[in-house]
Task: inverse folding
């Protein structure tokens, strides 16, 4: 790698070069980061602290999704916040590769978790009599293992291909974090083949999974015709939350990775949606109309108050 790559660090242009605007953005994204980590941690603690929720596969996967969202935000936002204080925003070559690996590792795992959550809702609504035997603890554990393994393999493939690219200058990335598309523009070689690989491995993959998820939710909604009005309303509320999260995650990913590299300025806003705003909105979407989670949060909060008062 050292023989082919002469770049030791990259310069990030960030979201803006205006010092006054950067101060405003720092406050905004600091609030977003605190809210994201706090809300996702709250859901994680609530599910882990509530045996009734933890026994439910839906909330088991929700807790894991919250963990992934909190980690994903921590990969992107802290570096961005620090960069707001520097006129010259740099990241080492190794740091860029680590950030790239972590982003694709966590996002790859999240794709599988969202798919597992859709399958859980399909079994619960379309095969309710067999739900407990199908969605058992063993299968949930296997699906989580598949999520970790799938995310790791996906990320390793991206990293191994990126290491094959020679970077000999320039080293300026018109973005706020390291990602495949902006790095392609800096490689000192023809990246047409690698660009197609990115489209196939990330973009087309997202399109296929997104289409399958939409079909599965279509089947679920169609099967609700035979349910009672009360059951239909509860199922629609749950599926509506899932569909909103799926759209919020997959549509921006498809916009970024399912097309050849072009102007990166628009990618910044799209990346903010699925990389920064989606992890913040996911807890709100899942808990806004979910009485079980809100009641469990209340119980966990009361329990913590009693513990601290006792001390």
Result:
């Amino acid at each position: 790698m050292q023989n082919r790559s002469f770049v030791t660090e990259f310069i990030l242009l960030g979201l803006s070069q205006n010092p006054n605007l950067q101060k405003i953005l720092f406050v905004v994204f600091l609030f977003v980061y605190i809210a994201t980590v706090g809300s996702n941690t709250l859901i994680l603690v609530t599910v882990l602290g509530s045996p009734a929720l933890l026994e439910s596969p839906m909330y088991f996967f929700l807790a894991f999704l919250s963990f992934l969202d909190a980690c994903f935000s921590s990969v992107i936002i802290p570096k961005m916040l620090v960069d707001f204080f520097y006129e010259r925003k740099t990241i080492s070559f190794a740091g860029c590769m680590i950030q790239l690996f972590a982003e694709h590792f966590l996002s790859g795992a999240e794709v599988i978790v969202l798919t597992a959550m859709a399958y859980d809702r399909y079994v619960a609504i379309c095969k309710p009599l067999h739900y407990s035997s199908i969605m058992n603890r063993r299968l949930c554990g296997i699906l989580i293992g598949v999520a970790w393994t799938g995310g790791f393999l996906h990320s390793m493939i991206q990293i191994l291909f990126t290491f094959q690219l020679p970077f000999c200058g320039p080293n300026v990335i018109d973005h706020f974090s390291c990602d495949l598309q902006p790095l392609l523009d800096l490689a000192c070689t023809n990246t047409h083949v690698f660009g197609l690989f990115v489209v196939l491995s990330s973009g087309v993959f997202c399109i296929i999974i997104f289409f399958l998820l939409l079909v599965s939710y279509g089947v679920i909604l169609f099967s609700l015709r035979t349910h009672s009005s009360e059951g239909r309303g509860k199922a629609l509320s749950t599926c509506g939350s899932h569909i909103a999260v799926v759209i919020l995650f997959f549509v921006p990913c498809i916009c970024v990775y399912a097309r050849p590299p072009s102007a990166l300025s628009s990618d910044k806003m799209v990346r903010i949606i699925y990389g920064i705003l989606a992890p913040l909105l996911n807890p709100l979407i899942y808990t806004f109309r979910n009485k079980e989670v809100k009641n469990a949060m209340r119980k966990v909060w009361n329990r913590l108050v009693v513990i601290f008062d006792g001390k």
Remarks:
- The mean pLDDT is 83.
- The first strand starts at residue 9 and ends at 12.
- The chain has one domain: 9-310.
- The beta strands are 9-12, 89-92, 172-173.
